[in-house]
Amino acid sequence: MSSLATELFARAVGFVAAAYTEAGLWVISARGRSMGSLARTEAGWRLSWFAGADPRLVNYAGAVDGDVEALAQALTLRLGAPVRLNPLSS
Question: What are the tens digits of pLDDT across the range 48-75?
Fold first, then answer.
């Protein structure tokens, strides 16, 4: 599967998971590295960053409201490189 097709599939899965599951977990990756995670719990959405994550991502102060695709786009614009949110299945 091509890189673009893989990215589109991952975003579609993330969007569906965000809309229809009670809890979820996504790994945020860029430039071939895992940078952080996005978690959906009963209490709401939580964005966490791993040690060594790019400061441009760590300093993100925008909305984290469940629109996984919009968050990926906002982070991509901040970093200047593609950012992916890949869902983890339970």
Answer: 999 999 999 999 999 898 899 999 999 9
User: Is 45 exposed, middle or buried (CB count within 10 Å of its CB: 0-12, 13-18, 19+)?
Assistant: middle
pTM of the model: 0.72
- What is the C-alpha to C-alpha distance for residues 67 and 38, in angstroms, rounded to an integer? 11
Question: What are the CA-CA distances from residue 86 to residues 12, 22, 26 (Å)?
Answer: 10, 17, 5
pLDDT attached to residue 7: 66
Q: Which tokens go with 9?
A: 């599939």
What do you get for the CA distance between the two ends of the chain, in Å?
23
